[in-house]
Every structure is written in structure tokens, then in C-alpha cells.
Amino acid sequence: MTSTPAVERLAVIGDLHAEHEHLAVVLRHLEHLEEPVDAIICTGDIADGGGSVDVCCELLARFGVITVRGNHDRWLLEDRVRHLPMAHRLKALSRTAIDYLESLAGIEDIETIAGRVMLCHGVGENDLAKVWPGSERMPPERSRRLDGMIDSSNYRYLFNGHMHYRTVVAFPGLTLINAGTLRRDHRPGFSVIDFRDRQITAYAVNSRRVQPLLQVPLENGDERRVWTNTQAFDGDWTPLTLY
Predict the structure, then answer these.
(1) How many structural domains does the chain have?
(2) Is the pLDDT of residue 75 over 60?
(3) Over 70: is that where the pLDDT of 3 sits?
(4) CA angle 24–29–30, rounded 5-degree value
(5) Is residue 2 part of a domain?
(6) Is 136 a residue whose pLDDT tops 80?
(7) I need a surface site. Which of 79, 104, 147, 204 has the fewest CB within 10 A?
(8) DSSP line for 188-214
(9) Any idea of the CA torsion for 226, 132, 27, 114, to the nearest 10 degrees?
(10) Looking at residue 32, which CATH number applies to its domain?
């Protein structure tokens, strides 16, 4: 059996919400990077937006993007919560797209040269869970499941979505990175993680082009606050945002 090489460079795409034009621009950009990525991941929520779920599913499959199921994808398959603005209906999708959505797992593991990654939409199999240290506009969102992951040391990184806010939250031995979204009304963008150089490069995207925004250390080179676990969240922090 041939083992899969550990990932050195990883592209991270957040919740899609049917933004097939943005997705196509991102994937074309990644295809022509001077220094290519070894894998592309996506945090799901393919459904419910102004574009095409069919095209999004086709692009994700064609480019081999490692994708997990989001709560909007689950709701679509269950025919639930269809009163939302721009909600899709199952009968409007192709059989190929439905099969693709049904094939998605809630969690994917990726091995990198810097440690094991969990890719999920919320926290683990809970696609509605949020993690947020707290701010003036939003109280802390804690997670016993994530606290258990921190204690177990089974994962070095967790990449999730759901909150549409590209940020980095540091814990001892585990870094959480929210992938954000491609929704055009939520500062659409994506990131490339270089595990060799320990850098995150963040990009903005529109329907025509990709624009590099900033580069930050993957770990704590900028003296960001390190939380013991999510129970320690107290709202006293300056978010490290990837915008």
C-alpha cells in the first residue's frame, strides 16, 4: 500500500453558499500558483445562496476538493429550514449534485508535516457549534468537544466554518482557524497555509480576480493570546482576522 504524503501547503476555502463564480475564480487561481498546494479543503455549506449548487458540486468534485457537510447541506437533504432567503430545493438539483452532497462526511482528517488536521463545519460532527472568545457584539461560544480535543492532543489544527469570520484562535497545542466564506456580502476570501514556512496567506476574491491581502504567522509569532481552553473565554482579546 502506498501512503499519502503529508501535506505541506494547504488551501482553505470556507462556506460556499452556492457562490459558484467565486469558487471557479479561486480554483483557477490555485491551479496556476507558482508554488502549488498539495490539497484544497472546504468547510461545506454548499447550498443556500444566489448561485448554483450543481456547479459548485461539479467544481469541488473536478478539482478534488476535500469537503465536509455543512448544516445548510444537511437541511437541504432533509428538506428542512427551507424558509430561509435564497434557500435551494432538492427537486431543483441534478442527481449528480444530490449524490455528491449525500457522500459528504461531517469530519475529514488530513495529515500535514506539522501535525494532524480536523476539517469540520462547526465542531466535530456538531455542524451548528460555534467557537468564539467573546466580543462586545457577541458573547463567548464555548465547546466541551473542542476542550476534549485540546486535552487529547490528537489534532494540531482544526479548520472550520459556520461563523463566516476568518480568524485564528490559539490554544496550547491546537490552533483553530475559521475558513470564512465565499458569500459576496461577507468579505469573500480564502487562505493558503504553508506548514513549512509556518505562514498563513489570506486572499480576497470577487467574480473576476483574487487579491492577496496579508500574511501572518501560523503559530504565535505575533504574541496572540493563547487560551487554556474554551472555558477560559472572557471576551478580552483582539481577534486575529484574515482580512
Answers:
(1) 1
(2) yes
(3) no
(4) 100
(5) no
(6) yes
(7) 79
(8) -EEEEEETTTTEEEEEEE-SS-EEEEE
(9) 30
(10) 3.60.21.10
Asked whether residue 4 is assigned to any structural domain, the reply reads: no
What's the CA gap between 129 and 123, in Å, rounded?
6
Q: Could you give the CA distance from residue 240 to residue 243 in angstroms, rounded to a whole number?
A: 9
Whether residue 97 is contained in a domain is answered as yes
Task: Choose among 243, 197, 204, 185: nearest CA to 221.
Answer: 197
For the stretch 218-241, pLDDT in tens is 987 667 899 999 999 999 998 999
- Give the pLDDT score at 137: 87
Q: Give 39's strand partners.
A: 10
145 three-state secondary structure: helix
Does the pLDDT of residue 2 top 60, yes or no? no
Return left, alpha or beta for 198; rule: phi > 0 is left, psi -120 to 50 is alpha, else beta.
left
Residue 1 has pLDDT above 80, yes or no: no
Under a CB-based contact definition with an 8 Å cutoff, are residues 181 and 141 in contact?
Answer: no
Cβ-contact 47, 54 below 8 angstroms: no
- Provide the domain limits for residue 41: 9-241
Is residue 32 assigned to a domain?
A: yes
Contact 181, 17 (CB under 8 A): yes
CA dist list (Å): 240 to 57, 165, 213, 235:
31, 10, 14, 13
Question: Whole-angstrom Cα distance, residue 127 to residue 32?
Answer: 32
Strand pairing category for 115-120 and 157-160: parallel
Give the whole-angstrom CA distance, residue 179 versus residue 191.
7
